[in-house]
Amino acid sequence: MTSRGTSGDRRRNVKLTVEYDGTGFSGWQRQGSRRTVQRCLEEALARVTGERVSLTGAGRTDAGVHAEGQVANFRTASELPADRIVGGINANLDEDAAVLSAIDVPIDFHSNRDARTKVYRYTISTRPVREVLQRRFVYWSRQRLDCRMMREAAGHLVGRHDFDSFRAEGFVEKDTVRTVEEITFDEDHDQIRIFFTGDGFLYMMVRIMVGTLIDVGRGHIEPDDIPAIMAARDRRAAGATARPEGLCMVEVRY
């Protein structure tokens, strides 16, 4: 399925919404010969459009992290209708990823720079027996967690702060100030789902925040310790990095 454009300059910009199970991917971003979501989508797009396509994603999810609403965009000279782009890409993807929609957007639209808010969800299972059927999509905590204390601690993370303590070591960011608009909890039987809404997140920031909240839930850290952890601007002050399988990119808002 190939449709070559008639113009050498790519006058069209297409926005994709993508869903994927991150288990078999080395993250979103292209990394040489590794299997990444970006690489698989770009290879599928090349077959559909007949062009070498460069895809821009709204966020760089880590290896093992999932997405229900990742957003990406690409420029093309292809005149193939958007609905046929969706079908064509999906026909060239493995079953652990799918394009949910494709729409034409203004030529200057940028899926990352234009994003106003991003929403992530982290799912924790606290059932007595380890997870089997959901093991790729939840983190199983062997220990029960005090969700009330975790909520209290999360309140200190909401707002505009320097999150340098919640940035992966060795990853350089010029600006480590971010705004976390909201952190909400949804408890259902033996599951805790934590939703993080913000204007952007540092590399592994959500997973480090979750790891820190889990330490609070286990009684290793007090909720009132969070301001001092942030003030330290030192990764060693925060909790462990939570495992990737519980994290899912839910939505990007523009």
Describe this structure in words.
The chain has 254 residues and is of the alpha+beta class. The protein has helices at 37-49, 82-91, 147-157, 205-217, 226-232, and strands at 12-20, 56-57, 66-76, 97-105, 117-125, 139-140, 159-162, 177-188, 191-198, 247-253. The chain has two domains: 12-105, Alpha-Beta Plaits (2-Layer Sandwich), CATH 3.30.70.580; 117-253, Pseudouridine synthase I, catalytic domain, C-terminal subdomain (Alpha-Beta Plaits, 2-Layer Sandwich), CATH 3.30.70.660. It contains five helices and ten strands; from the N terminus they run βαββαβββαβββααβ. Strands 1, 2, 3, 4, 5, 6, 7, 8, 9 and 10 form a ten-stranded mixed beta sheet that branches. α3 packs across α4 (205-217).
Distinctive features:
single chain, 254 residues, alpha+beta, Alpha-Beta Plaits, 2 domains, ten-stranded mixed beta sheet, 5 helices, 10 strands, globular, disordered N terminus
Whole-angstrom Rg: 20 Å
By DSSP (H or I, 4+ residues per run), the number of helices equals 5
Q: What portion of residues is helical?
A: 10-25%
What percent of residues are in strands? 25-35%
CATH class term of the largest domain: Alpha Beta
Specify the CATH homologous superfamily of the largest domain. Pseudouridine synthase I, catalytic domain, C-terminal subdomain
Average predicted confidence as pLDDT: 94
Which geometry do the CA atoms define? globular
- Total number of domains: 2
The CATH architecture name of the largest domain reads 2-Layer Sandwich
